[in-house]
Backbone:
């Protein structure tokens, strides 16, 4: 229990109870085992690939509902990270240690854990291959291996080289910690601070903006704001896709003199010279014949180079290699490889293989990749998988709910919650969802991490 929370008179138990009351998709935790997932007599070998946020939540739910099934989680990671906490590490609110727990303490009792790496999946033959344990057959597969980050796709960068030239990335916990040190130094020395994002879909698309706003707020609180030139270069066309939250973010960026430059993809970084180069991808540009008359080869995108004193980068992201190489990527509608795993948006069943269910970052569904989304996907996967095992119709449906708590400043969060239709789905009562507020900060700072480890990963939320 941290000092500020104890001063406010909260105990961990009360905080978690508060989470249930406040909503944020947390209401009704504990009800699942009793109501939504009655015990089933179904048998079979269920293999869960990836014991991260989605895999553990789903495995816990299946374990409680399927006493006669054999459930295996495969994941080589010995340490489990609460990744939403990385942003808080990078602004000095959490230590890296607070974001991690040993994986073995989180594997649900009665679930077999293979601490091994899946190297290939043969979905037509219902089997996969692991690095150390060879072939593992399955009757049902839950695919939750998250995504892969490609730091080296930015020329001059690799994961190991983060930190060189004052280049940081909060998607890596070590770098998030270094980023916090760098932000404190930046506020003392001043300089040109560039924050960027990436051109692929990414987990928590809000995170690069969160750390941008928190760094600016930190400098303001230190009285050094005028020493730093803050720039946000985005590959996208705007700051956020949902109008209600975009309107407020645009206003915050304007009010706080945070410059935004759209359509700029980071291309390379010279860490020695502290120069970053972007490709400009404007709409319509890059098509054959664009900018000239008639057809012809597409012109190369224009490039611009900027000098920086501090740089925050985000690598492009894809499904993990072993998934990309499998038949699971084939979109049955087009017959071609999709960018993310083709998945039915409502039932979360694989679009082609009926005994495969998909959740979390790897899923090809039109919503943001967040743990909050996983929290709503897990009960749907569990319920529909059991229905499939029993030969029943799949009736559970996911509506695309996701949440992005924008830490706009120390003490306030703009809680962006919405669904597939981009309709806001606010769950905190008595506050304006289109504005940042203190209750959102209390949730993000004090409640969501314990709720994640102690409730969500145990399938109880
Ligand atoms: C900086 C940052 C900020 C974020 N902020 C938020 C936020 O504020 N709110 C929010 O809701 N979400 C946030 N997220 C996103 C959230 O953490 C992810 O969306 C969530 O963890 C996805 O769950 P997952 O199970 O799909 O993937 P993960 O939790 O990443 O788990 C994937 C698991 O698969 C395993 N795996 C990978 N490859 C293999 C293999 N070959 N064989 C076996 N296992 C394998 C990995 O070891 C890992 O344990 C943030 C993420 C980051 C990085």
Residues:
């Amino acid at each position: 229990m941290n000092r500020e929370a104890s001063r406010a008179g909260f105990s961990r138990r009360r905080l978690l109870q508060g989470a249930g009351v406040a909503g944020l998709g947390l209401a009704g935790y504990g009800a699942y085992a009793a109501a939504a997932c009655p015990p089933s007599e179904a048998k079979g070998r269920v293999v869960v690939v990836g014991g991260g946020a989605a895999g553990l939540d789903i495995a816990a739910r299946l374990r409680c509902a399927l006493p006669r099934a054999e459930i295996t989680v495969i994941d080589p990671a010995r340490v489990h990270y609460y990744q939403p906490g990385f942003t808080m590490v990078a602004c000095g609110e959490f230590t890296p240690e607070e974001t991690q727990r040993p994986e073995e303490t989180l594997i649900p009792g009665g679930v077999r854990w293979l601490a091994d790496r899946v190297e290939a999946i043969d979905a037509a033959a219902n089997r996969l291959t692991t690095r150390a344990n060879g072939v593992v057959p399955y009757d049902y597969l839950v695919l939750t291996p998250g995504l892969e980050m490609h730091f080296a796709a930015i020329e001059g960068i690799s994961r190991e080289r983060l930190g060189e030239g004052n280049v940081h990335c909060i998607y890596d916990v070590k770098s998030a910690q270094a980023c916090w040190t760098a932000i404190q130094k930046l506020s003392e020395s001043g300089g040109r601070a560039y924050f960027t994002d990436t051109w692929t879909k990414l987990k928590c698309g809000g995170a690069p903006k969160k750390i941008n706003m928190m760094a600016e707020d930190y400098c303001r609180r230190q009285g050094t704001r005028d020493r730093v030139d803050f720039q946000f270069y985005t590959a996208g066309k705007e700051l956020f896709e949902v109008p209600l939250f975009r309107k407020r973010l645009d206003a915050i960026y304007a009010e706080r003199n945070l410059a935004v430059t759209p359509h700029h993809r980071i291309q390379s970084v010279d860490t020695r010279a502290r120069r970053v180069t972007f490709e400009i991808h404007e709409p319509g540009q890059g098509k054959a014949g664009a900018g000239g008359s008639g057809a012809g080869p597409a012109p190369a995108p224009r490039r611009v180079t900027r000098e920086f004193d501090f740089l925050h980068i985000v690598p492009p992201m894809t499904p993990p290699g072993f998934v990309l190489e499998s038949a699971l990527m084939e979109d049955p509608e087009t017959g071609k490889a999709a960018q993310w795993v083709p998945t039915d948006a409502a039932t979360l069943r694989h679009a082609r293989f009926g005994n495969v269910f998909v959740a979390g970052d790897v899923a090809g569904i039109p919503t943001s990749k967040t743990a909050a989304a996983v929290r709503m996907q897990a009960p749907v996967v569990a319920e529909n998988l059991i229905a499939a095992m029993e030969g029943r119709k799949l009736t559970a449906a996911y509506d695309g709910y996701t949440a992005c708590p924008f830490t706009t400043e120390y003490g306030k969060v703009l809680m962006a919650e919405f669904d597939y239709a981009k309709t806001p789905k606010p769950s905190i009562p008595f506050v304006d969802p289109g504005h940042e507020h203190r209750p959102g900060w209390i949730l993000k700072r004090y409640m969501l991490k314990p709720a994640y480890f102690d409730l969500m990963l145990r399938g109880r939320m």
